[in-house]
Amino acid sequence: MAQREHFSNKLGFMLAAAGSAVGLGAIWKFPYMAGSNGGSAFIILFILCMILISLPVLIAEFMIGRRGQADAITSFKQQAPGTPWYLVGYLGTITSALILSFYSVVGGWILSYLVRALLFQLKSTESTSYDTLFQSIIQNPWEMIIAQGAFFLITIFIVQAGIKSGIEKASKIIMPALFIFFVILAIRSLTLPGAMEGVRFMFVPDFSKITGETVLLALGQAFFTLSVGISIMITYASYLGKNENIAGTGVNVALMNVFISILAGLVIFPAVFALGFKTDEGPGLVFVILPAVFEQIPLGNFFLIIFFILLLFATLTSAMSLLEMVVSVVVKDRPKRRVRVTWLLGLFIFMIGIPSALSEGVLSHIRIGSQSIFGFMEFLTNNIGMPIGALLISLFVGYYYTTNESKTELQTKPFFYTMWIVSIRFLAPIAILIIFIAGIFF
């Protein structure tokens, strides 16, 4: 059997892991969640929840992956032989495939918007608002399938090249470009007249806005934004050398995620306030409000193109990790199979995602309960698959690992270890159960 491929260095791993986390959760979902839930008060809660809850689970996944040096299923089998813990790996594999099936649909939306912006066709008219434009795009079956397929082709092309030549190489290009584009857009947004109102909205807390629902939403955002619970980080850490400091790497990944989320807010909120739009527009903030915002500023189409390139980059890095999670389970340590397996699995997941792509158009009459096909797939993965996976991973590392084993794997200072073990054994499981119950019943 061939030797397992590894990231060439710590930076490559960190950029790939951060890219997996810095996806639509940070750039699309975080701004509208913050905008709808009090701005700075939500942001403070989000950061606290990430440090206390999400980061310890992320580090736990790193521990399992680096120790196992194999795909998620095999890693659990090696570390807990003769037990059913390996089913956590199967859960992560299935959940990752399902997430990618509808995540690629949003990637298709982004490509459609980007192509229109490049052709100077992304503008409102007297008869067509941006809301109407968005609806016309997502209800066009052929455009949706072609755009989703194009997004999948880019993702497959990168993943089939392997860890060093594919995922790591792409991450080393995409992540710095993402930071540069964000800084450019943030500077432009902050120079608009009246932009400081958006800055105050983000950084001057109004704690009267905090409710039980705000805390729950911040907890959920912190949990989902780091891609924990679906064994992606187990998979990435399995390509990591035994001597890497996973605690420090986990902290860096979390900090990069927070930084990108804050930058996204600095791009969006100053511009929204400066031009008199509302912050609580919800999921339509990126696809409906932002084009209207950019339309009203000099060189707006240029900056809109940059924004959708940036959004595409962030979406791709997450899609790469989702596909790699599934591919690694089949390929294992047989690199000659990678190209064929990646294309076959990619095409299979693409076909699974077609109903989600059509769920706002020709298949809009199909409802599962009160939800569209797209909505149901999101509910199934975000509200059931990910919390259950994260809970089981927390319990596995917190209680199945002995204290000596976890200390040896973590290799950190006693104070940090104590904080981590308290969280992974008590705080994280309780928080995840709250997320799970709230996601199912409320």
From TrEMBL:
The keyword Nucleotide-binding does not apply. InterPro entries: Na/ntran_symport (IPR000175), SNS_sf (IPR037272), YocR/YhdH-like (IPR047218). It is a multi-pass membrane protein. Keywords: Membrane, Transmembrane, Transmembrane helix, Transport. It is found in: Membrane. It holds the Pfam family SNF. GO terms for cellular component: membrane. The chain crosses the membrane at residues 12-30, 42-64, 85-111, 145-163, 175-195, 215-239, 251-277, 302-331, 343-364, 384-402, 414-441. PANTHER family: TRANSPORTER. This is Sodium-dependent transporter.
